Amino acid sequence: xxxxxxxxxxxxxxxxxxxxxxxxxxxxxxxxxxxxxxxxxxxxxxxxxxxxxxxxxxxxxxxxxxxxxxxxxxxxxxxxxxxxxxxxxxxxxxxxxxxxxxxxxxxxxxxxxxxxxxxxxxxxxxxxxxxxxxxxxxxxxxxxxxxxxxxxxxxxxxxxxxxxxxxxxxxxxxxxxxxxxxxxxxxxxxxxxxxxxxxxxxxxxxxxxxxxxxxxxxxxxxxxxxxxxxxxxxxxxxxxxxxxxxxxxxxxxxxxxxxxxxxxxxxxxxxxxxxxxxxxxxxxxxxxxxxxxxxxxxxxxxxxxxxxxxxxxxxxxxxxxxxxxxxxxxxxxxxxxxxxxxxxxxxxxxxxxxxxxxxxxxxxxxxxxxxxxxxxxxxxxxxxxxxxxxxxxxxxxxxxxxxxxxxxxxxxxxxxxxxxxxxxxxxxxxxxxxxxxxxxxxxxxxxxxxxxxxxxxxxxxxxxxxxxxxxxxxxxxxxxxxxxxxxxxxxxxxxxxxxxxxxxxxxxxxxxxxxxxxxxxxxxxxxxxxxxxxxxxxxxxxxxxxxxxxxxxxxxxxxxxxxxxxxxxxxxxxxxxxxxxxxxxxxxxxxxxxxxxxxxxxxxxxxxxxxxxxxxxxxxxxxxxxxxxxxxxxxxxxx
Length: 639
Description:
639 residues
């Protein structure tokens, strides 16, 4: 299967235009040579489609948008998006990323020195500073007087980027490499790839997700990605024989070895950790100083909401203009809610009005690339799956707040009688014990990653502990990242400590919703693996970020399991005991957002319309005045 825009755009991203729009732009397939790599000595051939609005000329230039594919996709996946943006007056270069489609070089997982530098050289092409292999140059893109580092470049186009998953992270890599990039919209992408593929949610610190202790490998997702990459490499080996030189089709040898090691051991070794973090915005977030709209999926077991929160918090702390959107769909559930993204591969709803996310995307680029005075709010918006609404006005299900996080904390104590009770209640002393399986045997089932979530929830008796609340007296809306603190004890084995992560304890935490009829729901099938250096004492674990209503009459269930089929769990079978001391109980903390914590979704007041206003009627900009944005090393001013 294809991950990211390779799969998602076929369902949701952004519309093929009708006959009138088809006449408003031309398309040309081009081959562009770039030189990339840490030593800047690796040539790669990139193939892309250049979309030129019909009236984009030297005298009347348009801003540009750069797009690339999700994992195992290609430029073809970007056609609907490019058509829509071109019909709205943007010059678009949709290209196949390195190692995908007919573009050359192996997969480098959006390494700034490779994928970021390749995007930078495509920005130079859009600015007229280089030519395609057939001699084509671009001289009809709006130019900026100075870039975000305060420097003037002769080939500085007004340019943004948009894309999902693998096509989302590359935007960070490009922004880190090139101060000429003006605005980005990364959808459903990662903050720290070592967390994405082998998360450790133990001992969370602030809003970060990076952990010094190696995590637990996502066995199923890792193999889905590996197979997709191999398949793409074999399919295009005739175009680029370099893909097979490593003996691991289509992958950089280091990337390939990291995947093989994760599969074999269940955790990333220091070499893999270094590689996965190097290709992650977490390691170079200080270089991201341009307006960023993060759009992350609530239904995403590959790149969860915790990742977007980590990026959002870091950007906001350093003064980067940032907007956070939590949408309904992601890698685990590709289809958006009605009206959330355009039906029929469109930005528009069937009646011709902009879809909700389409409107956000249009507003972002209109303001930061076209210079519209209507500025999108730099706020937090999220989809509420418990809201039913007629038709395709998804704004009824969305809410907004000035910033994340929202609401208040509500706590439940763990009682020794296996219950969750309101903080301050009388507690019983007691303990629950279970046995973790050997060699990561899957004793629990939550999903088949990348394939289906339509599998029964399962925890084998004797392999987990569970704490349940009484029926809730009122509906409880959880919006954010819950945490749990509890006390565990496990015997020290011969492998504990001496063998490193192989001998360390791995556990899986999840928060379920039990309806009055006994039906269980695990929100978006999200779980939280954790690995512990010490097998005894108090532990704190961050659960997955969720947006979920626990209805009145339902019960909360906190489950701590010893294994999960989607992961390569612990290697050593270990008896685990969770004990409760009434004087110092374990605590489940929920971020609860009542109706006073947020308001309706807020836009930049772009007028609704039955047909899209074509770009011929808008004001033209040849150059904008020198920006007040400080140099790249300092904080950016808010718009």
